[in-house]
# Entry
Amino acid sequence: MKPYTEMTPEELTEELAALKAKYKKVQALGMRLDMSRGKPCQEQLDLSMRMMDVLDSSSDLTCEDGTDCRNYGQLNGIIEARELIGDMMENNPKDIIIYGNSSLNVMFDVISRAYTHGIMGNTPWCRLPEIKFLCPVPGYDRHFSITEYFGIKMIPVAMSESGPDMETVERMVSEDASIKGIWCVPKYSNPQGYSYSDETVRRFARLKPAAADFRIFWDNAYGMHHLYDDRQDYLIEILAECKRAGNPDLVYKFSSTSKITFPGSGIAAVATSPNNMDDLLNHLRHQTIGHDKVNQLRHVRFFGDIHGMVEHMRKHADIIRPKFEAVEEILETELGGLNIGTWTKPLGGYFIMFDTMPGCAKDVVSRAKKAGVVLTPAGATWPYGKDPNDSNIRIAPTFPSLADLCSAMEVFSLCVKISSIKKLLQDARS
Amino acid sequence: MKPYTEMTPEELTEELAALKAKYKKVQALGMRLDMSRGKPCQEQLDLSMRMMDVLDSSSDLTCEDGTDCRNYGQLNGIIEARELIGDMMENNPKDIIIYGNSSLNVMFDVISRAYTHGIMGNTPWCRLPEIKFLCPVPGYDRHFSITEYFGIKMIPVAMSESGPDMETVERMVSEDASIKGIWCVPKYSNPQGYSYSDETVRRFARLKPAAADFRIFWDNAYGMHHLYDDRQDYLIEILAECKRAGNPDLVYKFSSTSKITFPGSGIAAVATSPNNMDDLLNHLRHQTIGHDKVNQLRHVRFFGDIHGMVEHMRKHADIIRPKFEAVEEILETELGGLNIGTWTKPLGGYFIMFDTMPGCAKDVVSRAKKAGVVLTPAGATWPYGKDPNDSNIRIAPTFPSLADLCSAMEVFSLCVKISSIKKLLQDARS
# Structure
């Protein structure tokens, strides 16, 4: 088929009529499919069921260092969990704090603490007239939700396949001391699936921020989430790079096992410099006596070591890779060559990013919803939910079954076509 | 033996020499006993080992309402956990949020949120010149540590066997709008083991605070922790009483299973009014996607229902009751009639409170430490660690074995005697 952008209004009108008839039929099916969030599917969850067996009433719940995991203590996490997560995050166990079940909660707490008490002796953010964060866009809505909640002004920075526009980042953080942070998902980014290039990471580690309390919020949520054995993105380890660059305190690095074992019942962690670590622990010791050590031990006993975790991640990949490939195949079949949308083809992570023609995203999402397919709300990938181009849609292929996913993507493609034609006809008229 | 307070300086000097000789012998034993914190002992932890068996890889981890506990969701906790904890806290499940493993963390978060965002639309505390909390004393050091961390001025209020001095509480909260809260451990209080009388609870529910955002921080940590079957304290349920008094939003009530199953691997909860609940959830939804539902389910399956939990608590009581009784017996044998100290005889909870003669507590604790017995630091039971009388010591009998506890209490009594005589001799000289 010829690109929609080259069709005459008559051709478009004819095509639209056919598509609308198809849409009506789809609506009549009464589908109910949810692709809105990056949730593992049931088969993925089943992969970790054996984790329920590794501890039972006959288990010795004592750590290597003699700590009884059942009792109070060990604010920074048990040593064997810090070792395992150290291997996962590529950091020294001594640079790691294991928290509870949610890395989002850790990020929230770090920002809350900066707001109430300040970072490493700097003025608490609540005492400053304005605080700003750089937000590579499109990005992760729950990051933006935290900064918005604290009244932090969010400044979008363009993303490319190699990461955020570093020239802008460098200029802005060096000029404006009210910029205190930047949200990063550096590997298999949410929603693009991009990984920061070596140059990007190197430039991050060499930032010269105007603010002494500027920090990079490095949410390496998908470090282990490769789709392929033979084609994988690599990311320079940021903490080591910051240390080499003489900027050891520049970064908080976050990760969790949420999408490795069970979301909500995993373990989350921070890796950071000794100075930042002291700062975090000074806060944490007022906040809690310690996190769930039994669950930390459960994770350690389940995986054994990092090789066990890598093998486990291959099983995840085997389940979700066909879903990613199906999405790409359907998009290619349905929309390829029509010149009405672009999409990413990630090698890992949880998302595919789709860009419609400007001004079509909201309409596509709303149209899909009316046909029973729930997508992440259009705009969610931008700060304040406002996508200036109204073009960005996050596709989350993992949760539905493969069959449901294919149906959903057919519906999605249909909606993209209809919205695009309506837009083209409207543009032609005006 | 005659009361020390009636002895002549010569008699005291003679007695002191004998005690010092005994102390030297004790020091030579090289004891190492820790009675500093309210930690369950190993036998108590063993009681919950079967909780490690209730979920395994063959378990259905689906909730009554169809929620898959292994995946994201259910911000306020799974319904069956809210029902169980509802029975434990004597509250409606719909008035309960289940959090993570630490009620202390929940209290910290509630105060942090009041500081950054304000309670129910009121001015955030960080924007006010001064915030004050009433602190019934002696009280719980970790409560005081949270308020101190947020720069909240703590005002001690006297405790009696029936609870805080309500006349003072009523007067102060009605006169001073900068008083925003009061820390309460209403049942088997830390460190006294007192329970608030019916009148105290009724008066709490009828407070007329000057501040619209004044809240009672009702930490009912020991609601289930009776030592005896036949002699138990009862506490009026505060939320219902507040509702009856037309003050539904006056209280945040906290509890957890930390000292029921495993400290650090239990579940914590808040019970509060619908208005406060909305307010908390508006915060929480930015902070996390949800807490550990698998652990919530584990607790539900382990206990079955509240009767199961009550039976479980009887087993705890059977283990720790002899320890409480041993402490009381040794104190009575060693110090009874000497007129140099008083102590409480609680029917539940985790602590016994000891009061030395004024000016002796620090010396007793330091002397005990030099003989190998670590006690909670003197002063810890007061805001800022400052006991104006230097007389209050918290005794935590649960963690050591009965034999160790007896040794430790002998040492403790010896130290009280030595310190007291030194004080009496000093007073006689001056």
Chain A has a mean pLDDT of 97. Residues 306-335 of chain A form the longest helix (30 residues). Residues 4-44+310-429 of chain A form a domain with the Aspartate Aminotransferase, domain 1 fold (CATH 3.90.1150.10). Chain A has 13 helices and 13 strands.
